Amino acid sequence: MVKICCIGAGYVGGPTMAVIALKCPSVEVAVVDISVPRITAWNSDQLPIYEPGLDDVVKQCRGKNLFFSTDVEKHVREADIVFVSVNTPTKTRGLGAGKAADLTYWESAARMIADVSVSDKIVVEKSTVPVKTAEAIEKILMHNSKGIKFQILSNPEFLAEGTAIEDLFYPDRVLIGGRETPEGFKAVKALKDVYAQWVPEDRILTTNLWSAELTKLAANAFLAQRISSVNAMSALCEATGANVSEVSYAVGKDSRIGPKFLNSSVGFGGSCFQKDILNLVYICECNGLPEVAEYWKQVIKINDYQKTRFVNRIVSSMFNTVSNKKIAVLGFAFKKDTGDTRETPAIDVCKGLLGDKARISIYDPQVTEEQIQRDLTMNKFDWDHPIHLQPMSPTTVKQVSVAWDAYAATKDAHGICLLTEWDEFKTLDYERIFENMQKPAFVFDGRNVVDAEKLRKIGFIVYSIGKPLDQWLKDMPALA
Ligand SMILES: NC(=O)c1ccc[n+]([C@@H]2O[C@H](COP(=O)([O-])OP(=O)(O)OC[C@H]3O[C@@H](n4cnc5c(N)ncnc54)[C@H](O)[C@@H]3O)[C@@H](O)[C@H]2O)c1
Ligand SMILES: O=c1ccn([C@@H]2O[C@H](COP(=O)(O)OP(=O)(O)O[C@H]3O[C@H](CO)[C@@H](O)[C@H](O)[C@H]3O)[C@@H](O)[C@H]2O)c(=O)[nH]1
């Protein structure tokens, strides 16, 4: 029986390994983590992450060929294949701070693998890492190996949160990079055999190590670039009377462009896009390519601009001040169908509104009050882009409340901000909401989820990103 161990039981390690266990009954999978609460949750009925379909997959395999454990060393020692799926956040201090990937967790995992191993192993980079990381990892493993042989593979993960199980069941592609040596090819084949149990052969791509590592950063940069492109167009649409949905639909009909990932929004969030692009920018700079670095930096700058533009629009529409006004924030997660709030645009929008002394009432179906308070008080790292905002003082925190549903959040509010595209926000009783709000009642739709015309008929003043503006909004132009 092939034994797999995955270091890191997070958003990637947990679902990915659960699907491997489900699809490969002859493989024994252990997911290990240093975080006791995380592992306890994986072993309970309340999994540590919310992901549609995940509970069902875990229930089918847990205790059979899928195990969650804090005994990291034991499971690594016994494994034939060790996936490393630890976090690789942006460095917050030292060389490359604000851009480079922090490989502390990866390095400590690699040292531990070298320390405890007593048999040859395939070590798989599952985390997103800078191109050439495998070379550094190889050095750590070889210099500490006591004669044991390691083969390093790069097998980046392309799942998106909220659709992780679907993405893992039916991936567009699985990418495996390895050394172009007989041992390297053998290791690539061993991993390919695992995926081949449910992924069609023509979807399993094999490349050299550096191509696989760089493809992950490139894919995220291309995806984020599409969103920044459509968001840049949304500003121009508002200025000219064009409708961004019509423009992106017609643009996407060109088969060379395609229809996906062209939804204008308040800005992209999530733990990956910004981090990975910053990482790419840093790699370009380190390789003496400042023009290429500058090109990719613009994707983040437009994203920041979009969030700032949204806040400015709210403030200017409401007579240039939101001081002491109640703003209901519907949705705090960075996208629907996840409870994840990492780099959610909601943090920047809320901080922007609080900076103008608004009172905020937040509702999200999957994000806890504790998480929201933590996100709003956390300091953001310093970086040379302008969205940098100070952490909130204890008095500011008092201006934030968390509601248990959308009706409670919007009661007596002056305005509503829709920041996550949860399906339930489409079908709320907006007449009831309107009745219970201060007048004039505003809706600022950061995800284009509501039917603006219907809401206008009820009496709302509606701002939808990239759509033709109400006369009210035209009369109150947003300040840059
Ligand atoms: N979240 C996503 O959707 C996604 C998708 C594709 C790729 N990625 C990449 O995958 C990697 C993991 O992302 P994530 O979202 O799962 O992160 P995460 O923070 O949810 O999980 C990482 C886990 O690793 C554990 N860990 C850290 N060091 C450890 C060590 N030395 N030993 C044992 N456990 C250790 C942490 O306790 C944590 O539980 C990152 O590089 C990320 O960029 C993420
Ligand atoms: O047309 C769109 C599509 C997405 N978004 C936003 O973009 C962000 C990221 O969304 P998405 O890419 O769906 O979720 P992630 O879980 O961040 O997944 C991305 O990041 C992962 C981590 O690297 C990769 O594995 C995935 O392939 C990649 O899609 C979210 O805030 C979305 O609301 C838009 O604003 N408009």
Automatic annotation (TrEMBL):
InterPro entries: UDP-Glc/GDP-Man, UDP-Glc/GDP-Man_DH_C, UDP-Glc/GDP-Man_DH_dimer, UDP-Glc/GDP-Man_DH_N, UDPglc_DH_euk. The lineage of its organism: Eukaryota, Viridiplantae, Streptophyta, Embryophyta, Tracheophyta. Keywords: NAD, Oxidoreductase. It comes from the Eukaryota. PANTHER family: UDP-GLUCOSE 6-DEHYDROGENASE 3, UDP-GLUCOSE DEHYDROGENASE/UDP-MANNAC DEHYDROGENASE. This is UDP-glucose 6-dehydrogenase. Transmembrane segments: none annotated. Its EC number is 1.1.1.22. Pathway: Nucleotide-sugar biosynthesis; UDP-alpha-D-glucuronate biosynthesis; UDP-alpha-D-glucuronate from UDP-alpha-D-glucose: step 1/1. It comes from Arabidopsis thaliana x Arabidopsis arenosa. Residues 328-452 form the UDP-glucose/GDP-mannose dehydrogenase C-terminal domain. It catalyses: UDP-alpha-D-glucose + 2 NAD(+) + H2O = UDP-alpha-D-glucuronate + 2 NADH + 3 H(+). It holds the Pfam family UDPG_MGDP_dh_C. GO terms for cellular component: nucleus. Belongs to the UDP-glucose/GDP-mannose dehydrogenase family. GO terms for molecular function: NAD binding; UDP-glucose 6-dehydrogenase activity. GO terms for biological process: glycosaminoglycan biosynthetic process; UDP-glucuronate biosynthetic process.
